Structures are given as structure tokens and as C-alpha cells.
């Protein structure tokens, strides 16, 4: 038995929305069929939008090895149908049969493996270019680096200042409340300061930069790919790694330690304010206690790991931007850039923290 879809009434641009649902339902009901037919006997008016919509579903059926018959179609509409079908090149979302669960897992593993290999290749290529630029410093685009520093640092400072001020404020307040039960509220100064310098301030500053710069790099490079600016640059002999990617990496390597130091100071001010309000310790006493009990190595650890965070954020942001293939990909890869950056920041930060403790730093 051949299942039939009746193409009735008008199929024009303004009337297609309910017809899409009808076609979806028809496809789902007949996904296991061998043959289906489209009957045009009751067709009213049809324009190019209607023809293209029908062609889309005919192609989907054919890709699922289902034979499609066109019945009672006029010669005029048959010519239109054949003409549009022969020039149908748009890649619509393909509705396919559901894959088995294990097949999906296999595809995910295979895609992840390929993606990781491509990412390693991308990193290796950048390392080669960095050595090349060290041998040929005249090729380094200093103006572009300064421009990227300005973009990455200046707009983010108010956000970092407010966020870290509040985090320092709340952390010191919570610590003082807990330690006050044991009559040791005063030691909250060195405890919260060391935590801020070593872990919280560098990590939160890097997360804020990841949310802004990684997404920005992906969107910028992705847009350049879509508008074929990158292809044009390659055609003219420009290397996009040297012109687009390495200046962004160097910019974040330079700017991250400065932002982390700025974040340290903002959190310190937050702590000072709450300690004065809650414990009645003056700003001078606070600074004297910091000077006496908090060693310089704690602030150095946060600043020293900041360049590594910068490299990570810039590489992931640029790599995801180069993966963009169409306008709809920009949102997807921008989200991936931010999520991947934060994920790897957590891992790298944990590894550095464990190593620093083991090494006594």
C-alpha cells in the first residue's frame, strides 16, 4: 500500500506554516515505508516557496531510501518542480531515522577524538609560529597586540573591580562570623587574603575574561570566516595565525597578570571594609597584619599562573572561531568557547594548586 499526501489548496509563502507540520507528521508516519506519493489533483495556487518546501521533503524521503511518486501533477508544475529540484543546493536540516543508542555514542566518541586531534594540531602549529616570530621579531604585529590589550582589559576593569570587591567582602564576613565562635576572628585577615591571592581572585578574573574575550574572539573570527575575509587574506598571502591569532594570545598573556593584580587589590579593599565594620580593625592595622603574616609568594602564585590562563582562553576562543562554517554556527561555537575555557581553567587551576602545595610554594 502506498501512503499518499494530498497537496491541496494554496501553497504560497503566507500559507506554508501549517503545511510544514502536515509534512513533518506525514514523514514521521511513513519513515518505514518503501513508497509514498504526493497527489497534486486538489492543488490551488503554488509559488516557488511551496515548490521548494515540497522538494525538501521529497529529498528527505529519498535520502531515507523511500521511493516518491508525484501524481496528477500538471506539466507546468512538473517543469517547475524539476527545475527547482535540479538546482536545490541548500543544506536543510535532514530529518533522518533515529540512530541506535550505541551508534550515537560511537559517533560522539569519534567526533570528540577528531576534534581533540585537530585542537592539538592547532596548538602545534601555533608553537611553530611563535618560534618563527621569536627568530623574526619584525613580523610581530605590535600595534595589533596593543589594540587587543585595550579591548580585553579596559572595558572589563569595572566588572572585575565590583565582582572581586563583593567576593572579598563576603568571604571575609563569612570567615569572621565562623572564627568569632572560637574567639579567633582576627585571623580572618590572613586567611581570606591568602585564599584570595592564591586561588579566588586569579580564577574569578580568568573566568570573567573567558566569558568576555573567548566569546568575543570566536564571534569575531567566525564572522570573518562567514564574510570570507579570512579567505581573502589567505588569497593575498597573509597568514591568519600571525595576523589574527597570535596577537590575541600575546595580548592575553600580558593583560591577565595585570588584571589578576587589579582583582587582588579589589578583593583586599572589600576585606578591609568588612573587617573595619564588623571587627572594628582600622585600615592601618589591617595593612600591618597583611604585611606581617601574608608572604609575597601567595600573591606571586596567582600572578604567575595568570599568563597560562590567558593562553588557554585565547587559544580556545580562536580555535572555536575557526570552526564556524555558517551564520548559525556562531552562537553554538561561542557558547562552546566559553564553556570549554571555564572547564579547562578549573582543571589547570586545580593542577597548579596541588603542585604548589606539594612544592611548598
UniProtKB/TrEMBL annotation:
Q: Which GO terms describe its molecular function?
A: phospholipid transporter activity
Q: Which UniProt keywords apply?
A: Membrane, Transmembrane, Transmembrane helix
User: Any keyword tRNA-binding?
Assistant: no
| Annotated family | Belongs to the MlaE permease family.
Please provide, in alphabetical order, the Gene Ontology terms of the cellular component aspect for this entry: ATP-binding cassette (ABC) transporter complex
Query: Per its UniProt record, what InterPro entries does this chain match?
Result: ABC_MlaE_roteobac, Permease_MalE, STAS_dom_sf
Protein name as catalogued: MlaE family lipid ABC transporter permease subunit
Q: Which chain regions cross the lipid bilayer?
A: 118-134, 154-173, 240-262, 299-322, 342-360
* Pfam families on file: MlaE
Q: Is Iron-sulfur found in the keyword set?
A: no
Alphabetized NCBIfam families for the sequence: MlaE family lipid ABC transporter permease subunit (TIGR00056)
State the organism of origin: Arcobacter arenosus
Amino acid at each position: 500500500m502506498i501512503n499518499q499526501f494530498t497537496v491541496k489548496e494554496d501553497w504560497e509563502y503566507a500559507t506554508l506554516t501549517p503545511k510544514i507540520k502536515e509534512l513533518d507528521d506525514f514523514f514521521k508516519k511513513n519513515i518505514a515505508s518503501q513508497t509514498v506519493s504526493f497527489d497534486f489533483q486538489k492543488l490551488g495556487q503554488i509559488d516557488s516557496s511551496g515548490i521548494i518546501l515540497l522538494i525538501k521533503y521529497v529529498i528527505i524521503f529519498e535520502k531515507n531510501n523511500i521511493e516518491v511518486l508525484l501524481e496528477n501533477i500538471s506539466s507546468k508544475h512538473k517543469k517547475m518542480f524539476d527545475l527547482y529540484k535540479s538546482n536545490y543546493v541548500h543544506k536543510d536540516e535532514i530529518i533522518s531515522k533515529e540512530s541506535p543508542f550505541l551508534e550515537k555514542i560511537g559517533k560522539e566518541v569519534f567526533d570528540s577524538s577528531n576534534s581533540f586531534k585537530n585542537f592539538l594540531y592547532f596548538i602545534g602549529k601555533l608553537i611553530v609560529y611563535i618560534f618563527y616570530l621569536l627568530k623574526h621579531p619584525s613580523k610581530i604585529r605590535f600595534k595589533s597586540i596593543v589594540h587587543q590589550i585595550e579591548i580585553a582589559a579596559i572595558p572589563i576593569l569595572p566588572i572585575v573591580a565590583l565582582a572581586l570587591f563583593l567576593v572579598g567582602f563576603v568571604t571575609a564576613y563569612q570567615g569572621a562570623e565562623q572564627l568569632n565562635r572560637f574567639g579567633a576572628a582576627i585571623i580572618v585577615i590572613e586567611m581570606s587574603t591568602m585564599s584570595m591571592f592564591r586561588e579566588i581572585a586569579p580564577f574569578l578574573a580568568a573566568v570573567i575574561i573567558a566569558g568576555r574575550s573567548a566569546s568575543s574572539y570566536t564571534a569575531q573570527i567566525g564572522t570573518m570566516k562567514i564574510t570570507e575575509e579570512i579567505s581573502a587574506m589567505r588569497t593575498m598571502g597573509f597568514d591568519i595565525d600571525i595576523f589574527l591569532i597570535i596577537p590575541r594570545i600575546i595580548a592575553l598573556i600580558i593583560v591577565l597578570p595585570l588584571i589578576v593584580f587589579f582583582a587582588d587589590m579589589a578583593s583586599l579593599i572589600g576585606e578591609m571594609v568588612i573587617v573595619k565594620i564588623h571587627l572594628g580593625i582600622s585600615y592601618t592595622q589591617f595593612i600591618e597584619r597583611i604585611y606581617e603574616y601574608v608572604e609575597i609568594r601567595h600573591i606571586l602564585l596567582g600572578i604567575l599562573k595568570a599568563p597560562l590562563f590567558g593562553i588557554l582562553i585565547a587559544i580556545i576562543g580562536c580555535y572555536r572561531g575557526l570552526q564556524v562554517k555558517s551564520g548559525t554556527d556562531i552562537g553554538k561555537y561561542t557558547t562552546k568557547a566559553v564553556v570549554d575555557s571555564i572547564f579547562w581553567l578549573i582543571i589547570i587551576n586545580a593542577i597548579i594548586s596541588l603542585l604548589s602545595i606539594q612544592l611548598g610554594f
